[in-house]
Design goal:
With 209 residues, the protein is an alpha/beta fold. The chain has a domain at 2-146: TIM Barrel, CATH 3.20.20.70. The protein is 17% helix and 26% strand. The chain has helices at 66-76, 99-107, 183-192, 202-206, and strands at residues 2-11, 21-27, 61-63, 85-89, 111-116, 128-131, 143-151, 165-173, 197-198. Strands 3-1-2-4-5-6-7-8-9 form a 9-stranded mixed sheet. The chain binds iron/sulfur cluster.
Length: 209
C-alpha cells in the first residue's frame, strides 16, 4: 500500500533540472519530523514548510500496489507525450519508494527521480538522486546526482560535503516565514565558494506549485 499526500503535473522548480516538466508525487510521512507543529521544536528537521500528513491533497490517496500507482502517475502525464519524468518527494519518499514501483514506471517509459533527506537506503534503480541533508541526521546516501543543501543550517557546514560523490552541489536559501531572507547570504557564500551553485525555488517566484 502506498500513501500519497498529493500528485500533480508541474515544472521542476529547483536544482540542475529546474524547468523540466515533471509529475510530482508527494508521499505521506517523514522520518525527521511528525509534521505536527507541537513536535517541531524537538524534531531533527525543524524548518520544514511542507504539509505531508495524510492523503487528502489534490491527486492524493492510497494505492494498493505499484501497478495502480504507476498507472495513476501515467494518467497525469500529457497523453502520448514523451520525456516522461516523475519526481518522488515528501515527506521522506524513501520510506515508501520500492524497486518494484520504479520497475513498473520504467515499463511505462518514465525516468524516475527522488528528492530525499539521505538518511535511508534507496532502491538501486533510481535514475536521478537529489539529496538534501537536514540538521543532525546521519547521512547514509553519500553519492548521487545532486546535493542540495538548504543554507544556512547551524549543524551543517557546506565545506564538509565536497568529499561526497555528487555531480552538482547546490546551496538553497532557507525559506522560513518568520526568519530573515537568507538569499543574499547564500549568494555571497556561492561567490566566495564557487564550487557551489545557487538554487532558487523558482516555482515560488513564478506562482506554480
Ligand atoms: S526532511 Fe524534508 S520533509 Fe522531512 S521535515 Fe525535513 S524538510 Fe520536511
Amino acid at each position: 500500500m502506498f500513501q500519497v499526500k498529493e500528485m500533480y503535473y508541474t515544472l521542476q522548480g529547483e536544482g540542475a533540472r529546474s524547468g523540466r516538466p515533471s509529475v510530482f508525487c508527494r508521499f505521506t510521512g517523514c522520518n525527521l519530523w511528525s509534521g505536527r507543529e507541537v513536535d517541531r521544536e524537538k524534531a531533527v528537521c525543524n524548518f520544514c514548510d511542507t504539509d505531508f500528513i495524510g492523503t487528502d491533497g489534490p491527486g492524493g490517496g492510497k494505492f494498493i500496489d505499484e501497478v495502480s500507482l504507476s498507472e495513476i502517475i501515467n494518467n497525469v502525464w500529457p497523453k502520448k507525450e514523451p520525456n516522461k519524468y516523475v519526481v518522488f518527494t515528501g515527506g521522506e519518499p524513501a520510506l515508501q519508494l520500492t524497486e518494484a514501483l520504479i520497475d513498473s514506471l520504467h515499463k511505462l517509459d518514465f525516468e524516475v527521480a527522488i528528492e530525499t533527506n539521505g538518511t535511508l537506503d534507496l532502491p538501486s534503480n533510481i535514475d536521478w538522486i537529489t539529496v538534501s541533508p537536514k540538521g543532525n541526521s546521519e547521512l547514509k546516501v553519500k553519492k548521487g546526482d545532486e546535493l542540495k543543501l538548504v543554507f544556512p543550517q547551524q549543524e551543517l557546514k557546506p565545506e564538509t560535503f565536497f568529499k561526497l560523490d555528487f555531480d552538482h552541489f547546490f546551496l538553497q536559501p532557507k525559506d522560513c516565514k518568520d526568519e530573515e531572507d537568507y538569499t543574499q547570504k547564500t549568494i555571497q557564500y556561492c561567490l566566495e565558494n564557487p564550487r557551489w551553485r545557487l538554487s532558487l525555488q523558482t516555482h515560488k517566484y513564478i506562482g506554480i506549485d
